[in-house]
Amino acid sequence: MTAVLQRPAPPAVPATRSPARSIARRTHPLWFLIPAFVLLGVFFLLPTLFNFIYAFTDWSSFKAAINPVGFDNFSDLALLSAVRITLVYAALVAIFQNVFGFGLAVLLERDTTVNRILRVAFLIPVLMSALAVGYVFQALFKPGAGLGFEHAWLGDTTWTIVVVALIHAWKWMGLSMLIYLAGLKTIPAEVIEAAHIDGASRWRSFWSVRFPLLAPAVTFNVATALLGSMNGFDIVQATTGGGPARTTEILNIFIYRTFGQGLFAQATAMSLVLFLLVALLAFPVITLLRRREEVL
Amino acid sequence: MTRLQPWFAVLLAAAVLGFPLWLVVATAGKSQSEALTPDLSPPSDWRLVENLGQVWTQGRVPAAFLGSLLIVVPTVLVALVVGSMAAWILARRSSLLIAGCYAFAISGIVLPPAVVTVVLLLRHLGLAGTAVGMIGVYLGIYLSTVIFFVTGFVRTVPTSIEEAALIDGAGPMLVFRRVVLPMLRPVLATVTVLVCLYVWNDVFYAFFVVGGRMDTLPLNLFEVASAGLYLNNWHLIFAYVILMSLPPLAVLAVAQRQLISGITSGAVK
């Protein structure tokens, strides 16, 4: 993208206009891009740019004037802890969701009637509202109710983050399962046959031959699970609201709460932190996973 | 092992899915006193219809349903038309400018939207708290997904049909409407499902943009639940969950094949 920015304007029309390009200008005119890019510019780019400005001000609901304050909004220690909790949450969700999704895909791989029905059943949580899923599990984990646990699993300052990540993974495991199933289907039967002829056991041919060929599915699933959980809100809000003692307060919960208090600039600062966190993390993760694909 | 697989799979699904879903139905069928501590016991006397009726008025379901529709339908329509227009050009032309535009257009799949400052922007535009503002925000978030899927699809379609229409003298608008859009039907079905699912269930962005100003199904669920948790009205919370989940479940029942192929098509090449 930087290459584009460094090019002298206008880059679309080079000095020597090739006939193919001038035909393209008539048959596939650039103005078709305008509506989409106006919408993206106004509702995506502009607020993002605002993030970089208002995060350094004292914008709030308490006064009319907005003044620059430097890095004051970033000095809150709670922000650091929210970043840490968000990263832990994202990592846990990525692990659980992929383990569950992969397990289900392997279990339901054969195209039998029972398996077909169960695959659809595991999509029900995916389609349900995440808020609703949160309330269901709040009831299930209520001490003395639901599943009849004695321990308050959603009121434990150590384990609640893990439990909430498990709930998040429960909601989305059907999606990961579908992606892994699609990945397993793309592996040609000859490859597995060849492994058998070479004397590989079922176990060996699965882990040494088929599993590595699932790399694209792993890339997609890990990336979407990480992004989905870093942008998470509903499940945490509906199960714990960020508690107990703010041990499950991921960034979006923090943003929502701070915004509700009228501290708009602080909320913007957190929003900017989330943006940078995702940008810094997502791109290396995706590149890393893609490189693994290429090696194979 | 092969003989045991169906039994194991069914038992696992019953445990993992059955308990939570049964809890919803059983609790939604109970009276208030019976639902005070929500558990897996069946209701002594099924009151599901009464509870659905009560939550229908208390949760303003008709208004919320209309509000959700009023936001979902225009978002999907505009995203499909505008997104496919852009995707067609992004897929068919090639230059550094186009590559840059494409990278920008799909970056929203990864990058989180600036949810606080977008409220400020909407205030400046006079759209704060309105359905139009909410639609704009969703378009800003999900156009990236539409453009990503549709561009990928267009690249797999040979240009010969378009060229035939062009030779017949049709302009780009006509070619797009009559030739390109109909070809995109499978991928548009995919994107419709995805965008509907996201927007229908979204509560986070709705809180910021239209919270307290409009009724949508998730916003009202939150309201019912916040009041309900306080009073331990679990029967009403889960009655609302049932009402809200019916439309997506109906789609799953009717169009599971399209849904599954749609969800997986973009992921594994």
Automatic annotation (TrEMBL), chain A:
PROSITE patterns: ABC_TM1
Entry's Gene Ontology BP terms: transmembrane transport
Main location (coarse class): membrane
Entry keyword annotation includes Iron-sulfur: no
Signal peptide per UniProt: none
Occurrences of domain ABC transmembrane type-1 (ranges): 83-285
This protein's GO CC annotations: plasma membrane
Transmembrane segments: 30-57, 77-108, 120-141, 161-182, 211-230, 263-289
Keywords, in A-Z order: Cell membrane, Membrane, Transmembrane, Transmembrane helix, Transport
Subcellular location(s) of the protein: Cell membrane
Membrane-topology annotation of the record: Multi-pass membrane protein
Superkingdom assignment: Bacteria
CDD domains: TM_PBP2 (cd06261)
UniProt similarity note: Belongs to the binding-protein-dependent transport system permease family.
Protein name per UniProt: Sugar ABC transporter permease
The species this protein was found in: Actinoplanes aureus
Lineage: Bacteria, Bacillati, Actinomycetota, Actinomycetes, Micromonosporales
From TrEMBL, chain B:
Official protein name in the record: Carbohydrate ABC transporter permease
Signal peptide interval: none
Domain of life: Bacteria
UniProt organism field: Actinoplanes aureus
InterPro entries linked to this entry: BP-dep_ABC_trans_perm, MetI-like, MetI-like_sf
Gene Ontology BP term (one): transmembrane transport
CDD domains: TM_PBP2
Cellular localisation: Cell membrane
Predominant place of localization: membrane
GO cellular component, one term: plasma membrane
Transmembrane segment boundaries: 63-89, 96-122, 128-150, 187-214, 234-255
Keywords: Cell membrane, Membrane, Transmembrane, Transmembrane helix, Transport
Coiled-coil segments: none
SUPFAM superfamilies: MetI-like
